[in-house]
């Protein structure tokens, strides 16, 4: 009875701590969801309606714990709605309207995202080597701006697909071009949360190296393969499962990538402390204990979401192909990734493994994950052939 009363007290206290802005923002999110339902419910099935309102509740909950997320969502909504209003019902407006052509058409916004992430990477390293706090604030601001532009770009691309035709319209997480953008955004958001949580910006340059590499691939894929052009969905992808399986998968990929770069920093910091305890890197990089904590939490988070994504993928496969598991190359390598991180967590939690071996394992695990994410599409074929380069 006392435990129930204590739990009720904590919940009541949490609600009382919410500011007026918290409640106004929550009402805006809820109102936007209701408006979207009113406008597009005729295009949605019951599962998609559940995803819409479930996502709204999740965003409200996350925003109440992380204040910066509230501002980000408002900026994304403002940019997206402004761009959609400029389009009206004519996709061709993107070729003539100044704001769309140079700023907010999906491809323009994604190009801005790409440039801002590269600039943020360089500025974070400038902050690390100079120790200038203002440079660190600028780097964080560039990262937030890039994330806002990229997310708005995806929202606008979603609308553009429907302007091409109701039979073409779909959520923009259906091919390598779109999921590389999603990967960049999720990795950046995970990093920004840990930057806020641990009050350090010295990891930013290392983490954003992965995002800059993704941006490099994205630019090559755009200009060499014209991958930015919106295409109709492959029939197997025309399912509500895509809306939950793919984002869950990429939270896992983003978290594993973050953990790998933290592992790189751990190795650099450990070597710096051993050779030059008073050197710049030894002083400015976070201490190994903090790095190990972030690396563990990132892998635990990634493993949870990757497990969820694997289960959702099996359910989707049963509906689309008639079986939960077919040993398709993508499925096989997803299992290898899952086993790799399950073993990592097992050795840390039950055997107490830590230090450089676990950092190196996280780095090697990233390359295993990279092959499952990209290498399978490049070198192997199977039921997931819709993701080929």
What features would you describe in this structure?
- With 389 residues, the protein is mostly helical.
- Helices cover 80% and strands 0% of the residues.
- Helix 3 (46-65) packs across helix 4 (67-87), helix 11 packs antiparallel against helix 13 and helix 14 (329-351) packs antiparallel against helix 15.
- It is globular and about 65 Å long.
- The termini are far apart.
Write a brief structural summary:
With 389 residues, this protein is mainly alpha-helical.
* Major sheet characteristics: none
- The N- and C-terminal alpha carbons lie at a distance of 59 Å
Oligomer: single chain
SS summary, helix count = 15
Q: How many strand units?
A: 0
User: What's the helix-strand series?
Assistant: HHHHHHHHHHHHHHH
- Helical amount: over 70%
> What amount of the residues lies in strands?
under 5%
What general form does the structure show?
A: globular
Low-pLDDT residue spans: none
Helix- and strand-based class?
mainly alpha
Specify Rg, calculated over alpha carbons.
Answer: 22 Å
Mean pLDDT: 90
């Amino acid at each position: 009875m006392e435990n129930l009363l204590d739990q009720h007290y904590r919940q009541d206290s949490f609600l009382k701590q919410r500011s007026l802005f918290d409640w106004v923002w929550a009402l805006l999110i809820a109102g936007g969801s209701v408006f979207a339902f009113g406008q597009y419910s005729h295009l949605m099935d019951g599962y998609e309606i559940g995803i819409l309102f479930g996502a709204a509740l999740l965003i409200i909950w996350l925003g109440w714990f992380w204040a910066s997320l509230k501002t980000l969502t408002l900026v994304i909504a403002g940019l997206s709605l402004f761009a959609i209003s400029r389009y009206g019902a004519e996709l061709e407006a993107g070729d003539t309207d100044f704001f769309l052509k140079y700023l907010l058409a999906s491809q323009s916004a994604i190009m801005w995202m790409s440039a801002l992430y590269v600039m943020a990477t360089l500025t974070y390293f400038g902050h690390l080597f100079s120790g200038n706090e203002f440079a660190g604030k600028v780097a964080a601001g560039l990262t937030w701006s890039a994330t806002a532009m990229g997310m708005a770009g995806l929202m606008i691309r979603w609308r553009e697909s429907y302007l091409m035709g109701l039979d073409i319209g779909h959520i923009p997480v259906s091919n390598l071009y779109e999921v590389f953008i999603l990967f960049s955004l999720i990795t950046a958001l995970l990093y920004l949360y840990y930057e806020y949580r641990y009050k350090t910006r010295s990891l930013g340059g290392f983490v954003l190296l992965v995002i800059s590499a993704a941006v490099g691939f994205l630019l090559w894929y755009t200009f060499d393969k014209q991958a930015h052009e919106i295409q109709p969905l492959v029939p197997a992808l025309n399912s509500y499962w895509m809306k939950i399986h793919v984002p869950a998968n990429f939270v896992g990929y983003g978290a594993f990538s973050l953990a790998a770069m933290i592992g790189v920093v751990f190795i650099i910091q450990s070597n710096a402390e051993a050779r030059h305890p008073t050197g710049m890197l030894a002083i400015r990089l976070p201490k190994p204990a903090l790095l190990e904590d972030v690396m563990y939490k990132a892998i635990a988070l990634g493993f949870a979401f990757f497990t969820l994504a694997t289960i959702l993928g099996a359910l989707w496969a049963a509906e689309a192909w008639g079986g939960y598991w077919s040993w398709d190359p993508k499925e096989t390598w997803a299992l290898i990734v899952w086993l790799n991180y399950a073993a990592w967590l097992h050795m840390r939690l039950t055997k107490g493994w830590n230090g450089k071996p676990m950092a190196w394992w996280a780095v090697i695990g990233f390359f295993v994950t990279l092959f499952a994410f990209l290498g399978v599409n490049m070198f192997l074929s199977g039921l997931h052939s819709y993701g080929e380069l």
